[in-house]
Design a protein that fits this description.
Layout (H helix, E strand, L loop, with lengths): L12 E6 L3 H11 L4 E11 L2 E8 L8 E8 L3 H9 L4 E7 L9 E5 L24
Parallel strand pairs: 1-2, 1-4, 4-5, 5-6
Antiparallel strand pairs: 2-3
InterPro entries: PRTase-like, PRTase_dom, Xanthine_Guanine_PRibTrfase
GO biological process, one term: XMP salvage
EC number: 2.4.2.22
Length: 134
């Protein structure tokens, strides 16, 4: 992914979607030599049996010159919100499921819609529960 985003000088920075995009965002920043890294925090929760998105924190601007990164685009709910907030950003993910694929500019791996992704930091072999319990 990083090699496809070269030359790195074209980017002002990276906006990582918390929490899934934090680790990929840090790795991408390292590979591209980008020091300006910000976050957008979106929470999805059930309210009266409807799944709603709540923006807890956002990076300013329309995304021009920025890469927005998340680990996965699934059904597209979060991706639609990201596109509305940052219409001029270049939106990338590591994994893309069919329903969300049209919403991202680039991704690394196609996966079936019904596939569950085990991130290395969430696997039992190396998983340590967060101190906060969340």
């Amino acid at each position: 992914l990083a090699s496809r985003l070269m030359p790195s000088e074209q980017w002002k920075g990276i906006i990582a979607v918390s929490r899934g995009g934090l680790v990929p965002g840090a790795l991408l920043a390292r590979e591209l030599g980008i020091r300006h890294v910000d976050t957008v925090c979106i929470s999805s929760y059930d309210h009266d049996n409807q799944r709603e998105l709540k923006v807890l924190k956002r990076a300013e601007g329309d995304g021009e010159g920025f890469i927005v990164i998340d680990d996965l685009v699934d059904t597209g709910g979060t991706a639609v919100a990201i596109r509305e907030m940052y219409p001029k950003a270049h939106f990338v993910t590591i994994f893309a499921k069919p329903a969300g694929r049209p919403l991202v500019d680039d991704y690394v791996v196609d996966i079936p819609q019904d596939t569950w992704i085990e991130q290395p930091w969430d696997m039992g072999v190396v998983f340590v529960p967060p101190i906060s319990g969340r």
